[in-house]
Amino acid sequence: MTNQTLTRRAALGALASLPAIAGATAALAMPEAAAPHHPDAELFQLEQELETVKVRMDKLERAQSRLSRKAEKAAGAKPLNPRDWVTPTMPKDLWDMLISTRDRTMFGDMVKDGFDWRPAPVQAWHEAVAKERAQIQAAWDEYSARCDEQHRLHDFDAKEAEYDDAVSEHWDIGQRIFDIPAHTLEGMAVKVRTAKSLCLPESGDALVSISADIVRLVQGGAA
């Protein structure tokens, strides 16, 4: 097997141990001197475009993270997130009172009266818990509104849209790479590295695409 092509015999062996292809090809780099005339030149070009977009995407992500931290700091002290609030446990004496009252109350009366059948101390406890929950939610909503205002002041949404566009472009280039047949191990290596760049499992799109490359080469090399 030469450095430039994958022979039929080698392809058959590779297909038999496809999971090993990812590790075997990942470290291969584009042969720079032969790049313009390489059978997989298109894949190499797309990989360069992918890396350019990835650098821009990562830069935008870091900038957005810094902006978010700045906005949160300007918004003031961060209150408890309602998702992290845990409903307090009812005290045992109130629980015993509730159970005792429930056992003495007819089911029809419970349905008819809603929660009015509950003892006053128990009802007061529930109301206090509901008030605490509402206060925590209100504090969080006020804080979120201040953060949103800071985001608007720093044009966060426009920058977020730019980041989303970069993510979409990165993904689209990756899918184009998987769609293009590879003719050499170096070309297959591009697909493995692309899967890593897209945070895809090595058992996913990259190996499916490489599998098709190998089958195509085994069957005669038709594109």
Spell out the blueprint of helices and strands:
Layout (H helix, E strand, L loop, with lengths): L7 H9 L1 H9 L14 H34 L17 H13 L2 H7 L6 H34 L2 H24 L5 H13 L7 H14 L5
Helix pairs in contact: 1-9, 2-8, 2-9, 3-6, 3-7, 3-8, 8-9
Could you please describe the fold and organization of this structure?
The chain has 9 helices and no strands. By secondary structure, the protein is mainly alpha-helical. α2 (18-26) packs across α8 (185-197), α2 crosses α9 and α3 (41-74) packs antiparallel against α7. It has helices at 8-16, 18-26, 41-74, 92-104, 107-113, 120-153, 156-179, 185-197, 205-218.
Q: Encode the helix/strand succession as letters.
A: HHHHHHHHH
Largest sheet: none
**Beta strand %:** under 5%
Ranges where pLDDT stays below 50 over 5 or more residues in a row are 1-6, 14-18
Summarize this structure as a short list of keywords or feature phrases.
mainly alpha
Compact description:
The chain has helices spanning 8-16, 18-26, 41-74, 92-104, 107-113, 120-153, 156-179, 185-197, 205-218.
